[in-house]
Amino acid sequence: MEKRALITKQTSYSQDKGTYGKKGNIAENGCGAIAAYNACQLLERPFPFQEALLVLGSSALGHGRMGTNPFALLRFLKAKGLKLRLRRLSKTQDKKGVYIVLYLYSYKGRLSGHYVTLYGQDNCFLAYNDSHDGQIKEYASIRELKKIHKAKALWAWQIK
Predict the structure, then answer these.
(1) d(Cα 132, Cα 134) in Å, to the nearest integer?
(2) What is the CA radius of gyration of the chain?
(3) How many CA atoms, within 13 angstroms, populate the side-chain half-sphere of residue 144?
(4) With contact defined as beta carbons under 8 Å apart, do 136 and 129 qualify?
(5) What is the mean pLDDT of residues 67-74?
(6) Any domain includes 58
(7) Which of 49, 71, 69 is nearest to 58 (CA)?
């Protein structure tokens, strides 16, 4: 599967207020839109990134300051004709396919969340937009991602 124009460094995008929702910005709050964009690129169902920013930003939580509404993200992907399936961690061990993962973690005493796109290969998952340096990270399993990020909760949707 050819990988095209994937976004791996969210922090390289605008920090201007109002670029994601009325009060959020792409660099701090746009990870859900980036995850949707990357998943569709990996599935060879591309669309303009600006479309995800506009649609998902308009329904973002806290006018954008709290990021992407997970229900809006699922509706957006379904409207693109994609099938989504919430998977238990035990059902992701075959490491095949494209996933969007939302994990919650504690940062400076506050609960935060982050969306990443995973591409399962034979022996690992490649994670896009999961580091501040823009590097594509590898995980042996989604459980490993959860452990490394000290996630309090994690949801993984397989996208087809």
Answers:
(1) 6
(2) 14
(3) 13
(4) no
(5) 97
(6) yes
(7) 69
Those residues with Cβ within 8 angstroms of residue 91's Cβ, 6 or more apart along the chain or in another chain: none
Residue 16 amino acid letter: D
pTM over 0.85: yes
DSSP secondary structure code for residue 137 in this structure = E
Does any domain span residue 107? yes
Instruction: Tell me the residue length of the chain.
Output: 160
Measure the CA angle with vertex 51, ends 53 and 65; round to 5°.
10
CA–CA distance from 3 to each of 26, 46, 90, 135, 156 (Å)?
22, 11, 27, 15, 21
Has residue 66 been placed in a domain?
yes
* Beta-sheet strands, E only, within 79-122: 84-87, 97-107, 110-120
Q: Does pLDDT of 66 surpass 80? A: yes
For residue 156, how many other CB atoms are within 10 A of its CB? 22
Domain count across the chain: 1
Residue range(s) defining the domain that contains residue 113:
10-159
- Tell whether the model's pLDDT for residue 2 goes beyond 90: no
CATH number of the domain within which 63 lies: 3.90.70.10
When pLDDT is averaged across residues 114-124 and rounded to a whole number, the result is: 94
